Automatic annotation (TrEMBL), chain A:
Family affiliation: Belongs to the binding-protein-dependent transport system permease family.
Keywords: Cell membrane, Membrane, Transmembrane, Transmembrane helix, Transport
Mode of membrane association: Multi-pass membrane protein
Segments passing through the bilayer: 34-60, 96-117, 129-147, 178-202, 229-248, 285-309
Name of the protein in its database record: ABC transporter permease subunit
GO cellular component, as recorded: plasma membrane
Automatic annotation (TrEMBL), chain B:
Gene Ontology biological process terms, A to Z: transmembrane transport
Keyword Transmembrane in record: yes
Organism, as annotated: Auraticoccus cholistanensis
SUPFAM superfamilies, A to Z: MetI-like
Protein name in the entry: ABC transporter permease subunit
Amino acid sequence: MSAISELSHLKVSKARTPEEKAARRKENSRDNKAGYLFLLPWLVGLVVITIGPMIASLYLSFTDYSLIQAPQWSGVDNYVRMLEDDRLHNSLRVTFVYVFVSVPLQLVVALAIALLLNEGMKGLSFYRSIFYLPSMLGGSVAIALLWRQLFGTDGLVNQVLRLLGVDATIGWIADPGYALWTIILLHVWTFGSPMVIFLAGLRQIPSMYYEAASVDGASRWSRFVKITLPLLSPIIFFNLVLQVIGAFQSFTQAFVVSNGTGGPSDSTMFYTLYLYLRGFGQFQMGYAAAMAWLLVVIVGALTAVNFLLSKYWVFYDD
Amino acid sequence: MTDLQTRSATAAPEASPAREPESRPVAARRARSVVKHLLLIAASLLMIYPLLWLLVSSFRPTDVIFRTPGLWLNDLFTENYTGGWYALGSPFSHYLVNSLLVVVGAVVGNLVSCSLAAYAFARLKFRLRTLWFSIMLVTIMLPIHVVVVPQYIIFNLLGWVNTFIPLVLPKFLATDAFFVFLMVQFIRGIPRELDEAARIDGCGHWRIFTRVMLPLMGPALATSAIFTIIWTWSDFFTPLIYLTDPEKYTVPLALRSFLDATSGSNWGAMFAMSIVSLVPLFLVFLFGQRFLIRGIATTGIK
């Protein structure tokens, strides 16, 4: 079961008879101390590394802070400035395009390949390895550097295009119209991990469903639409939620491909990259904190929308 | 288990039952299969080609890299490696050692702290467990950017910027909650009779954890270790923030600094060191694939 279904299925413990309750309480008190002792590192981390800094960053978002002087309370100034910050609006647009194009595209490719591989064919583990490898390496700086070369003016892509007779002189990375698309392509290239999740999910579908449908003369397509998709929908949903959250925080590829500038013409200025430049380039910590909170709100809202919409298309067998 | 059962059990994940209608002619089915394999081979080649080309190109002079799309290597040009190794402030081995230190710290930290928390969540009953558990699940999805600014401020005040502490310490506090979840899932699959037997024998929780649970958790620990290695080795954002002294650079930062260094256009050297940086990941992939695939399939880690 995934983290997400786990969250939506958290159960309230059932009412019990008084004797049972008393017995449980006794048991509980025995475990209580041990439980918290085992949990101690995590609890300390939660307070010191996660919740504490979250509250601190909420406070900082209402201040002016450059690390040199103490934070100066500035009310909602940061948020007002964000409303007027064109570069920020642009970074939101870039990030939204990235998320809404690359995530569905990657999932569709992952699902298509998983379906192909699932039809009981030879060499499954070989193909799976090959397709998975890019997912493992895709987040590294080495691959981002490679991408700079591949999509440069004399890069591999143009070399191949020239071999095919196309007069390719465009520098994909240097062209504001294409730079973002090279990063989207990089994301799609790493479809291996959702593919592995889909493959595992496809295995769970009982083959008798397909057999019954075949007997009834259902076509390949209708078997896919009526059986595979509904039964796989919780897994598609799970992938979708996690990929959206992850894609919103993409940083390394845009940073390396644009060499830390978000260029050309801010066309690869991802939201997190802009946040980094504001916070750690210009040391406007208050502004960066406000941006971080907007990020949390956006990611939270998107996840909530995903959950709301899931009612209409995600099918739970149980 | 009989031999037949063993065989079918191990073969099961590889071959799902045929779903083709019986009536379909054999020839047509075979043709379909051939087409499918051709498609998949083409797709595999397309996927893997940039990586192969990177490897081959790392043995070519830079000017040849920019006009040779093929994979054929006429002669082995190793100067990229010897030159690239010394192209930055320190020999590349220095950055490899830095990365290795961080990775080892992160792996130890994650394994220790996450397994402790997972044992508590999966086996112990304590007050507010459900609440803590759901908070843990939510932190998996929390963007790190919302905590990174104050974290930086704290670590800066403590004088820990330009040390590896900010990269390693959080791992000892189970902040990679994904692994807590992965291990909880795994422990839930271990029969309770085992720890109850140990309890009856008079073992406390600590002994049950160290003597019964940990030895049984091998696969979950391996999966967590492998993912920690991959993520920490490739991590760029955290070192970028905390490590500004080139002496302290980890491999990703060192690689990126090729873009700024005088050797900015020395693609050959950059390719060679890229390959060097990918070798550990590739080895992990080769030897840990089993755990990787299982880990992804059961928890949906990306």
